[in-house]
Amino acid sequence: MPLGDRTGDKSESRYCGVETEFNDDMPQVLAFNLTSGGFDFIVSPLMDPSYRPSLVQKDSFGSAALPFAGSDLVLSPSQWSSHVVGKISSWIDLDSEDKTLRIDSETTLKQEIAWASHLSLQACLLPAPKGTSCANYARCVNEILQGLSNMQLWLRIPLVKPDDDSLDTNSDTSVDSWETWNSFRILCEHHPQLSVALDILSTLPSTISLGRWFGESVRTAIVNTDSFLTNARGYPCLSKRHQSLITGFFNHSIQIVISGNSIHPKASADANDFHNRSVEGSQRHSLRPYLDYVAYLYQKMEPLPEQERFELGYRDFLQSPLQPLMDNLEAQTYETFEKDAVKYIQYERAVSKALLDRIPDEEASVKTVVLMVVGAGRGPLVRASLQAAEETGRKLKVYAVEKNPNAVVTLHALIKMEGWEDMVTIVSCDMRYWNAPEKADILVSELLGSFGDNELSPECLDGAQRFLKPDGISIPSSYTSFLQPVTASKLFKDVKAHKDLAHFETAYVVKIHNAARLAPSQPVFTFNHPKSSDEESNERYKKLHFVIPNETGSAMVHGFAGYFDATLYKDVHLGIEPSTATPNMFSWFAIFFPLRTPICVNPGSTLEVQFWRCCGSTKVWYEWCVTSPSCSPIHNTNGRSYWVGL
């Protein structure tokens, strides 16, 4: 059964498997580990480990039966596909200096994966590369991947990153295991069916180094019994750091596998005694206490907050950014954004402060503030502005300017329903071309995109600025975009799956989850409103330098996460930049700018990034590239793949 029965707050069930030894009787192995052990699946060798192709005696016809663990008929197809992960023989070494071993290894690898594919297994566990070279191993695996249908290959990688001050240059453990994985996946061209199975050892690398793996294609974490400590009752437990790591794996949909022999005999004996009293004549699994502890860690996790439950379906799902200037938004889109109460509370606070600054108390009953909501949609900013006026005791005259004729229908119904006819005038027009009958004291808009300016707020507000009084107030008054380099293997593979240039030169709105953020974000472009001069261009260029911390180790940059932070008025702000993000606000996800070819960065090195905002007569677009430690092509030249229409 799954680790926990916690419906509604997880994207998928969490399961725990067990690594087993070779056994001819696969039905018995499965029954014992699933029924007595309570595990959800087994990671089991498919072939007798003593088998070597070069030693097989063939019959007179030149053939021999391979020593697999039973035929495909010993289990049902659903049992094979749901409960068995094939474990490829651990002795294979395709980069050995021994020619016979190398040839035997390649033959066996292909035979076992062919058998696993025949059984319709969902995945096979590949042994860890031996030594520092893995080119021939990777070549063979890549060759197999080209003909594989849906099965995943999990490369076993020990979780090792030694501290720089304790490196033993004569030991293989002095190698950062991430480097081994990175070499292997590059040789296999970042194939989407190649993933990682992390071997969790008794000692762990630094927390910041561990963070790299949450952006990689990690499918399972193999926790050896040697990693467990012993509590006061003689039962297995994990260190605080191991607990935190396992919880992180749960949060990233990484399954757990228990491996090794029981080293807690008291716990196993107690569990067996209890089980025997319950089910006479049966034997309790010696690793059940380890499963129970992992299940306990899962059960004690805090349920996801409501906002994160809402966002579950959007995690790492690439979406094209909205273009509200070029396209009319649909009712469902309006409804989703209107549910974000936090955003409108911030707008109401900003308008309240602006009204108090605009009209002193002694003039509140005699002066009327002219406020224009440009891009009014279905009216949430109109409502927030009128609530601010009521709260501050100021008189307000509102113009609601909206270009979408469908939204205007809803606006008219709202005004009539609320009895706002004397205070609100609806204008069905593009703000850039409207001739206002009077000047505004306050101009309110919500034209911000995930990157601040990517929904053309600068161009729209430039057009609306002409009907703002010289001393008028714009809400927002400014906004800044931010960039951050990320490891995001899933996002990269999803873009790569399209097999064209255009998708690598497109920016995506995405709830980034399975990612490692490699350095703090940095500001890119800032826009102020009203702007000081009509002659000021909205084109921008910025060179950014990100330093990769030494503690991280080497890492792969798949692209850049983009955010924004906006000042609505004075100290009232809203935004999604991680260090200053507005709590519980869900109107915006991050934006993701992919790289056509990922860039490997070394610890302590500087990643130099160039970013442009380009403007034409009919469109606005971004261009980007990396210039250090190596050069990438300039992405999206002349807006050939991605642009926002004016």
Q: Domains counted in the coordinates: how many? A: 3
Helix content: 25-40%
What count of helical segments does DSSP give?
17
Mean pLDDT: 91
Q: At the first level of CATH, what is the class of the largest domain?
A: Alpha Beta
CATH-defined superfamily of the largest domain: Divalent-metal-dependent TIM barrel enzymes
Q: Describe the sheet with the most strands.
A: 8 strands, parallel, barrel
Q: Quaternary status of these chains?
A: single chain
Shape: elongated
Strand content: 25-35%
Count the beta strands.
Answer: 26
In words, what does this structure look like?
The protein has three domains: 16-54 and 67-226 and 239-259, Alpha-Beta Barrel (TIM Barrel); 331-446, Rossmann fold (3-Layer(aba) Sandwich), CATH 3.40.50.150; 478-645, Hnrnp arginine n-methyltransferase1. The protein is 28% helix and 25% strand. The protein is built from 17 helices and 26 strands. The strands form five sheets. An eight-stranded parallel barrel has the order 1-2-3-4-5-6-7-10, surrounded by six helices. Helix 4 (135-146) crosses helix 5 (177-187). The longest helix has 20 residues, at 99-118. It starts with 15 loop residues before the first strand and ends with a strand.
